[in-house]
Structure formats: C-alpha cells, structure tokens
C-alpha cells in the first residue's frame, strides 16, 4: 500500500479517475487542505524478501502453526497477553455519555489487559458541554470504576501535545506523565508529539484518602 499527497488540481483529477475505477481512495487531513490517495495492491498479499532463506508474507488471520509458536513459554512471555485470551474476553468497554438523555460524548476503557490488570482511558465530549466540569466528573468515575469494580491495577491515557485541556485533566485526576511519543500524530500540516500518562491503583487510593475529611 502506498500514498500520495498533493494540491495540484491536474494530479487530483487523475486521482479521482483512479478512484472511479476502484483503484484508490481519497482522504482529507484534519485541516482539510491536504489530499491523500492510498492505492492498494491488486493482491491482498504483501511479500518482503529478506534473504535467500528468509521471507515475509502478509496474512489476514493467525494460522494454527503461528499460534503454536506464540504459545511456547519462551515466546509467550515476551508477547501481549491477548494471544492467550479466549475470543469472548472484551478488550474494550465503551460508554455513551448522556446529559438528561441527550448524547454528548463517549468514554471508554480501551486495550484492556485482564491478566496485567490495566486499560487505556479515552474520552471526548461535544464542544457545547466542554469546560463545564463534565470531563472531570466522567474521568473521576471512570477511574473509580476501573479500580474498584474492574479490579484494574493501572490506567493509562495518551494526550496530543497541543491539547492543553486534556493534559490539565490528566494531571488533575492524578495521572503522571510517563513519556513522549515524538512526532507521532500528523495534524494541520505538521507532526506533533503524543504524551503518555499513567495512574496506579495505590496512587489513586492514597489520593482518595487525602481527600476524605477527618472527623474532629
């Protein structure tokens, strides 16, 4: 698969002709200025020749041969635990946020790892309901539910570096900035960083104790 981005009208006309023949797809980035065309190969199989003996070939499913290798103890210990999950175990739990029955956003536990007891949080709210404390309220309940009811040990979140409101929310909720994915997001004609945040169960418990007023 390969991509092209251009603003030349003649090239775009050519691309549109290709799209009409189901050879490619046209996308706009968030700024709606740059046009992307992604052209798939005629075959769904991609091959990479590494040497006379070693070759890679793409696949859309995991064969039993691969699964047997992945479940070898000396291999499985270095892989994500989802290789051992039965199909029925959810890897995400998604919630619709409502205000007086009106849908105003979504919150979720993503990339749930039940054995390692961790999940990534995501949250977005309609602009009309932002900066009204809704995000803080929802985040507090996501955290409490994750630790107290889902028995998670760790919660994670990623925030784009230009989203100052989200970074403030993470810090207010007790998350610690743990790392930076450099130039990991393309937005408005340039690459920006993504910040990684984490919160441990014991940190949340200690914070909760401090917030409980002591009886005199």
Topology overview:
Elements: E1 2-6, H1 9-20, E2 25-28, E3 35-39, E4 47-49, E5 55-57, H2 64-70, H3 73-76, E6 93-99, E7 102-113, E8 118-125, H4 134-148, E9 154-160, H5 164-172, E10 176-187, E11 190-200, H6 201-211
Parallel strand pairs: 8-9
Antiparallel strand pairs: 1-3, 2-3, 4-5, 6-7, 7-8, 9-11, 10-11
Verbal overview:
The chain has helices at 9-20, 64-70, 73-76, 134-148, 164-172, 201-211, and strands at residues 2-6, 25-28, 35-39, 47-49, 55-57, 93-99, 102-113, 118-125, 154-160, 176-187, 190-200. With 216 residues, the chain is α+β, with helices and mostly antiparallel strands. The longest helix has 15 residues, at 134-148. It is globular and about 60 Å long. The termini are far apart. Mean pLDDT is 82; it is low at 21-26.
Brief sketch in words of this structure:
About 25% of the residues lie in helices and about 35% in strands.
Mean pLDDT: 82
- β content, as a range? 35-45%
Contiguous low-pLDDT stretches (5 residues minimum) are: 21-26
Helical residues, percent: 25-40%
Helix-strand pattern, N to C?
EHEEEEHHEEEHEHEEH
Observed structural traits:
216 residues; alpha+beta; six-stranded mixed beta sheet; three-stranded antiparallel beta sheet; globular
């Amino acid at each position: 698969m390969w991509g092209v981005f251009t603003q030349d009208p003649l090239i775009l006309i050519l691309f549109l002709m290709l799209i009409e023949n189901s050879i490619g797809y046209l996308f706009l980035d968030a700024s709606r200025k740059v046009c992307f065309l992604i052209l798939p190969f005629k075959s769904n199989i991609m091959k990479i020749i590494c040497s006379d003996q070693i070759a890679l070939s793409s696949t859309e499913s995991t064969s039993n041969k691969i699964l047997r290798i992945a479940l070898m103890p000396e291999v499985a210990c270095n892989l994500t635990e989802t290789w051992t999950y039965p199909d029925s175990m959810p890897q995400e739990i998604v919630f619709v946020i409502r205000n007086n029955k009106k849908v105003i956003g979504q919150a979720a536990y993503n990339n749930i790892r039940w054995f390692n007891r961790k999940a990534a949080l995501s949250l977005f709210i309609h602009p009309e309901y932002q900066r009204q404390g809704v995000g803080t309220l929802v985040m507090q309940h996501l955290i409490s539910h994750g630790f107290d009811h889902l028995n998670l040990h760790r919660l994670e979140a990623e925030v784009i570096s230009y989203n100052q409101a989200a970074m403030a929310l993470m810090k207010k909720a007790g998350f610690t900035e743990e790392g930076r994915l450099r130039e990991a997001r393309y937005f408005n004609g340039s690459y920006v960083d993504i910040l990684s945040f984490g919160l441990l169960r014991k940190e949340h418990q200690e914070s909760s104790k401090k917030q409980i007023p002591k009886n005199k």
